[in-house]
């Protein structure tokens, strides 16, 4: 992935600041979080489910040179997202407001509750912010078999920004209304969740296409690294690795094949109008 001089992606870096409390949700909470931790929509139910016990962290430390570079990379990627989505929204007669990107370690407070590293990267609609503990990418490589590159991070961030796009377009609110209405079964809402997540993958692919056309950021292997990450966190791969079998009815994010398909559809078309996963998957 080729770096540019773009910065100013609305990043708040909380790493090394100390403070906060480790939520004592217990092993059960962490197992549930591990299953749904990656690229979720609104994680508030998991974030709020633990008890408030735990020890406070008060020490502060300086970031290492490597950590500083990672922060600069995320800042650059955040700016890329802002530039691309401002253009897409402008083309469709709308105004884009970027999300805040919060880098943290171990635990921090979000508008959706206490964020923990075990949750992985997530978007919180309540404060329109993306939360990322960068140690997640070690987990992605070691537990789920994805080779992590710089563009893997770019894909993950672009997916989470895709959830922000859904919030700005009202999609997130409509899905929440469906969930709260009580008119839909768990299986039906799982299918809605899959459509939501696959649309965020589509938006990530669209972002990659449009950003590369403007900034020429892609190098050999970058798109494949995004595909590898998308496939690694397909519901079938996660279930097979965590429980030894696959239950398609319980999918909430889509299979490995679906995640690749919709990311590549976004990348190949670069057209936001082609990303109606709900129409395609909920007929």
Defining traits:
transmembrane helix; 283 residues; 4-stranded mixed β-sheet; single chain; 8% strand; Uncharacterised_pept_Zn_put; membrane; transmembrane; alpha/beta
Task: Detail the topology: elements first, then pairings.
Layout: E1 11-13, H1 26-36, H2 44-47, H3 65-91, E2 100-103, E3 107-110, E4 113-116, E5 122-124, E6 129-132, H4 136-144, H5 150-169, H6 171-181, H7 186-215, H8 222-232, H9 235-243, H10 256-269, H11 277-281
Parallel strand pairs: 1-2, 2-6
Antiparallel strand pairs: 3-4, 5-6
Helix pairs in contact: 3-5, 3-7, 5-7, 5-8, 6-7, 7-10, 8-10
Helix content: 40-55%
In terms of quaternary structure, what is this?
single chain
- Helix count, DSSP H or I runs of 4 or more residues: 11
User: Which regions have little confidence, pLDDT < 50, spanning 5+ residues?
Assistant: 19-57
Main beta sheet strand tally, sense and closure: 4 strands, mixed
Which class best fits the helix and strand makeup?
Answer: alpha/beta
SSE pattern: EHHHEEEEEHHHHHHHH
Q: What is the mean pLDDT?
A: 86
Strand order of the largest sheet: 1-2-6-5
Q: What's the β-strand tally?
A: 6
Shape field? globular
The termini sit apart by 38 Å
- When the domains are counted, the total is 2
Report the radius of gyration as a whole number of Å: 18 Å
